[in-house]
Amino acid sequence: MDINKPSSTGIIYLEDLVSNKNYGYQDKFYIGLFPKFKRDLYLDLLKTAGTIRNLSKGTNIKFTRLWDQLTRVPISIELLNKISEYLVNKGYDKYKLKNIEKQIIYIKSAGSKSQKLYYPKFPINLKTIEGLRFISHLYHDGCIGEFNKQPQYTNQSKKEVKQFLNDAKIVFGNFKRKIKYGFGHGIKREKYFVINLPTVIGEVMIKAGFISGDKTRKNPVVFRFLKNINNKKLISEFIAKAFNDECHVRDREITLEQSTLIKNHPKPSNILLLDKVLLEKLGIKVRKIKFIKRYNNRYGEVAKFNIGIYSKKNLNNFYKNINLIKHKKLKLENYLVRTGETT
Questions:
Q1: Domain that holds residue 243
Q2: Shared domain check, 174 and 72
């Protein structure tokens, strides 16, 4: 376990996006630098190397690739890392990646049609209210596509979806995306709202340790830093989004459930285990994880588990600490008022 990785720290630096320290051509990120900074970078490279051809030999990067990315097109993270190391070794500490990350106009993923993320917020801090809400939504009613790598979030509440979009901009940087409206499948045909974020945000999250693809099938390991958070305000925001997305509010109980693909034996999801740990940090007593049922989906046989909060005392504690979405909050409030636990 590397305690300095984003999954442990909750902080994503530009250098965390580097895939191949020895430089390769499978670049995932391309960066637009401020013109003056890029010009200074180019001139300092010439000052130390003499010519681009000499620089090509010194860095083992193809001449045409160096020339194009230093003069005409966005620079890839791999090439930027390589020339950063070259200049830092020559005494130019201003070109360390931690300094360069403040000189970025935009970052994008590979592909000519990839949307740009403007003025990225490096170092990206996931340990904020907005960051915790963003991650919680991804873990529950959201996901990052396995193939398109786009973060997606769906909810019947437009307010929740809009907050997810705004949180993403506060955490990562500026971009334009529209919330879409549609209907679900099945008998009820319920309405829903959905937002897809730029691929570059998904790629950044994956580099930080987020597992893309279907959560039921993969049962992904959660970010390690989440288990170490003790700030009750941050925990409350994370739990609120989890329960707004997936809980059932009934008289005398609130339950939260998730399913996982059965491999060797039924196993509760890592996300549900995290939700239980965080609830208990708020002093809310949670019944032990309960196996509900087996059923089949498109990936095979899966097992559903849940956690539950019971007793008027614990439900009242939950009510005071967790800001549920309006219709769920009213349902819980009505029960507590009827039983004389709260007003």
A1: 232-338
A2: no
